[in-house]
User: Fold these one by one.
Assistant:
Number 1:
Amino acid sequence: ITMKARKNTKSLSSGRHRWSAFKPMMVIGVLTLCNLTVLYFLHNEYLYSGLPSAIENDISPIRHYNSSNHQGHFWEHEPKCFHIDYICHANGEWFYDLSIKRRQYSLPSITYESSEGGEFDHRIHFSVLSPPLLSGMKAGLQAGDDNLKQCYSQTPYHVVIQSVFNDMMGEFYIRSILGLNQWMRKFPPQSDEDLQFYVHFNKNDASILDGHRMFLGGLPQNGKIDDFLSLVQDKSSCQCFQKLVFCGYSVSVDQEENKLTFEVAENIGHPHPEATLGLYSGGPKGSNPSYQDFRQDLLTRYAEKDPMLHQKVREYRLQILLRQGVALDNVGDIDEWKIVGLADRKYRRIWLDIDESTRACDSFLLEKVICVKVNVEEADSVEEQLLMHMSLNVFMGIHGSQFTNAVLLPQQSFVVELLPWIPDYAWGVGWAVRTDHPTPMGTIFHDTDLHHLGFVLDRGSVPLCNENRTWDEEQEKKCFQEHDNEFRWDRRNFNVRPSIITKFISSFLLVNNTHCDSIQTRASESGFVLYNTFCSRGNETSTEHYYMKETFEEDDEEAEEEEEDEEEAEE
């Protein structure tokens, strides 16, 4: 065309004729530039922020999302999330639905890279090839198969969530749930029916529990919660998803090869990550509303789902009293009773003398205080877990993940964490018994409307190496090391002096705890650390924290001094 334009200009003398001949060349150049620009942005939009947005197409029975006046979805803002549009699964293979118009551009190959090692679940696999890499026949079948329209889920968004140690309920709560809740508060879905969750467990022996379902039930979702394995297992029938979302992953993009690989990350992010995980890992002890936000959202959502929930809690409390031998005529107002739940673990960290501790509460029966054993593993449903913990005024037990369910306790209830005795040479001493800031598990009560206390157990709580009372420290240390598998605090069983329970009841449970100065004084006098308290100072009610100074703090101070010396040397 350029050559023809030049030839024509030789025979045309007027400027007007020259312009007419040049016009075709200019139009084609502009169109070519526009086309390349569109292709470039289609490609890069996918690579950096997930696949292209849902393309409106008349595909039944998909319910397309109305995005007008909407700020987007939470996964579009969380760096550890990405999404794939119009993806299908059949006969053990994942593939793009190419019947969607204009979808052939820049669809990449996507692969999940699982971690190596025997403890990881290698049944989890996910791989989809870019359409140009498919055979011509297979690509043609996918592009023209009208039957795929009938394979689409009625739920438009299916979300796979992952975080390390998510088989442990406390880790799952902190690393997955808290971040999701904050993102979904900021970018709420139009309807609960729009979302379905799957939990990706890395460990090959992990499975989804009622606790996972209960905490995910505190988020907007359609109530159909499953694990990731159920999604990727080979099935003869086809499944198609308008949008498949992955959260809690590190993503690597190879633009030249048009490939995306993803692998597990430590946690799902948070709009303000320093506020949540920073505190969890021993960071600054500043204000953090995330924990109270989700606690309140969780209780509110279940109350909305079941208007009879609070009445069921009252009936559950009554049954507890009757099982403990309280005569129905002596019950009176059920709300006046204080029910103390003692964590009755059956595997590791067993409270060996729990029956003796339970009987120690009998002396407070006239004051309407009763102690009961609580084992979350005996709950056979989400509702049972809710009622079991919402009926308590106190939850007390050995440091561990069973405390996660204590976020269900009523306002102003007590969470009492018994901290293991650990000598300074043993594993866990630097974090499992901290009293100068919350323990990793206890972080979830920070800035909530619950009272969170801690009490450090003594040498007498250890049921090992008691044969010879005349041993010195070195002989005792040698004995513990010989029984290392039993002695390590997270595997060890415990004894608890009943006087610890009675001291707590008389110092806190039967006393007015509304005034901050009063509860702080009683905590100090009775040897309890007050990690978090919801109390009043004058006319204002807020959360306050009263920590103990630890020997670990001296190490921290020495480290800070060394750091300051290094900074001065650098200056």
Number 2:
Amino acid sequence: MRATLALLVGLASAPQGAAFQTRPRMGRTSATRAGNHPFSSLLQKGGRGPTAGTTAARPRRGSVLVRFSAPVSEISQQIADARKQMEADEKTKLMMQALRGANINDDAFSSSTLDMKLVEMRASSGADDILPLTYQPEQLKRYFGRRPGAVIQRVLQVATTSFGLLASVAIDSALGRKEDMEVRRAAQLRDTITSLGPFFIKLGQALSIRPDILSPKAMVELQQLCDKVPSYPSEIAFDIIRSELGIADVSEVYGEITPEPVAAASLGQVYKARLRDGIPGGGSEVAVKVQRPFVLETVSLDLHLARELGLAVRTFGGPLADRLDIVDLLDEFAGRFYSELDYVLECANGLKIEEDMKAFPNVVIPTNYPAYTARRVHTAEWIDGEKLSQSRATDVGSLVNLGVLAYLTQLLETGFFHADPHPGNMLRTPQGELVILDFGLMTEVTDNQKYGMIEAIAHLINRDYDEIGQDFVNLDFIPEGTDTTPIVPALKRVFDAALAGGGAKSINFQELAADLAEITFEYPFRIPPYFALVIRAIGVLEGIALVGNPNFAIVDEAYPYIARRLLTDKNPRMRAALR
């Protein structure tokens, strides 16, 4: 939570003169669609948004002219100064690196010495003995209650795999060398988690973007978890393709397919193929993702065991129970995990996001093929490109700016947000286009949350602190019904320091940190799941851009975009926010 407030402080430290002024035009505002997008001329070139001191675009009849009384570049510099001062503190610097995904391991394969442990178990025996395909804790309890052998096997796997790490940590503690061995133990922890399989890997990655749960150093270490593991035999993968697609031979759909996978992860592995001539899409190069055998069974068992442990901790209490509700955390995480295991849903997500992104000609979403997709097999267009984070092309900055606008559109307009934007999921094509991949993990943003984010920014700029307390409720940071009145004085101290004038150089960040700590520890703040993913998405884009341009500031794109939304959206809540 402190990370979120710190980001708002960075925005608040922009100069007072940056407020925008409006000059209304006659008539109605134009629709925001492909070819009629306010930034359409810029988007078609993959270019930047409005430059310093300019309007967002030449207004059409019925639009609103936006004039900035201070150049956006001045705001950018203020935020860059604030960022430098905040990152002078080692813990804050580590946290910012973690939120940007700077340490994510995105290798195509893991070390061949790693052995990921899964549990093979007998199939369902009847209608009342079915493994659910969605997260249903009570049904999981009944299912695994009938399979004590699988439960014992998994408990032994976890115990034996983690024993070496736990013993080493105990010895380090006894000999007083914990600090000296920290790096080695972190590497050992990553290998242990990877060996234990998808549940542990995904949980570690999910926690790596939660500054409200983990320390900055722990976030950085967990981000180096590698989701890539040794591949399983292609004979098994091709059997799954035949079974899932209901075909006698793989060649009925794929005229060509690589004999071995081109990449392997904990959930599945990917082959490069070409659709057979004579069928819809015939001749197209595609990526075929095939789910690993017994992943659903093992993940379900791990979720069941972890939840039972969480219920025991909740019952008996203790320091861990006071600090963290394991059951709530698992229930929040599990639903998304099951969605990632359903490739039919991933295919539908890809089709929807492709439609949503049509306003951005230079954003490429791979074509999905529902006819050649099933729950454990996914077929989508193969697109050649290099990882945006590794590209040395001169237009990377422009593509990041384009990505910011695309993600803001998902977040604040369509409400359907790509929730897994790590560096490996964003490519640059040889033609200079931005490719976004992998739509297994999405999140939906409600209208209340969309408008709440814009309202919070408007209230912050206008110093409407009484309203900011309610904004936190609207955004799900504070439970509904909480009296936010006592929070207002603390918020006022924090943001008045940022808005007092003189920019970031005038802010005492040590005092700010103390005030932020007071707010986050004394009041029932939590980072809602969707917002943790939002921070991650924007942070990853910023991290890619900062590699090539240390002075990059997302405000260059975000500020004009949010200004336009405030000025052109006819929703009564937006009108009220401008008063």
